[in-house]
Amino acid sequence: MEFGDSPEVSEADTVMENRRAHFRVRFPPSRGPVFHADGLRVLVLDCSSLGMRVLLADEMPVLGLGDRVAGRLDFGEGQSIDVQGNVVRVASGSLAISFAEGHGVPLSFVLREEGLQIMRRTSQPGQGRTSFRFTYPRKVSPLVHAELWSAPVRNCSESGLYCLKPISGEAPSEGAMARGVVAFNEGRVLRVAGTVLRTSPSGFALHLHPDSGLPLPLILAEERFVRSKFIQPSQE
């Protein structure tokens, strides 16, 4: 595990800047993974399968663009992985590292951490478990099949769905009751019942009854499916 070694800097060293659109999980300062290198413990601020950003510590050596960094990422609960890469950005208080090919964090680790962060946030005092809402790309939106209409889901939480304009039938009016089946991805199906809280030209919000909400594990499974669908393995 080591800091140091400065190879030649090329355009490839800025690859992280060109890939920030890839999925990244951000950590609260007190709960992030720890990066161990050369006997130092450095807090990780955010991480993707392509790179990470760490909190600069006073005891760290001075590093510049292109410098090589290698060490072990400790995610806690017995989960850790060796990584190495090069410094691509030095900002006030943080250091951005782009992982070398074959020496980064598997996407499965990133998605696992994201799920843990969501569960920690939504279980904090004063925050209902319904605070997490997932928005779908249109290509993979589930469908709600009710008696009089079928509509794609734009986003969902444990307590409600926002549906786009129906693809069949007429949109329900505000205050209307609705019962039906949601056909999620990968064959997941769930019966739901709720009340239309509001309508708009683009769609309507369906508040699910307490005994008919969406389980958080199902929402997280949907999110993992979408991430894996739109982040191909060759892009990790």
Q: Which secondary structure elements does this structure contain, and how are they paired or packed?
A:
Blueprint: E1 2-4, H1 15-18, E2 25-26, E3 34-37, E4 40-47, E5 51-55, E6 68-76, E7 79-91, E8 94-99, H2 107-122, E9 134-135, E10 143-146, E11 149-157, E12 160-164, E13 168-169, E14 177-183, E15 189-200, E16 203-208, H3 216-230
Antiparallel strand pairs: 1-6, 2-4, 3-4, 3-6, 4-5, 5-8, 6-7, 7-8, 9-11, 10-11, 10-14, 11-12, 11-13, 12-16, 14-15, 15-16
Please provide a written account of the structure.
This protein has two domains: 2-122, Beta Barrel (Thrombin, subunit H); 130-234, Thrombin, subunit H (Beta Barrel), CATH 2.40.10.220. Helix content is 15%, strand content 41%. It is built from three helices and 16 strands.
Strand order of the largest sheet: 3-4-5-8-7-6
Which spans of ≥5 residues are poorly predicted at pLDDT below 50?
A: 3-21, 126-130, 232-236
Major beta sheet summary: 6 strands, antiparallel, barrel
Per CATH, the class of the largest domain reads Mainly Beta
What is the CATH architecture assignment of the largest domain? Beta Barrel
Series of H and E elements: EHEEEEEEEHEEEEEEEEH
CATH topology of the largest domain: Thrombin, subunit H
Number of domains: 2
Task: Give a nutshell description of this structure.
The protein is mainly beta and 236 residues long. The chain folds into two domains: 2-122, Thrombin, subunit H (Beta Barrel); 130-234, Thrombin, subunit H (Beta Barrel).
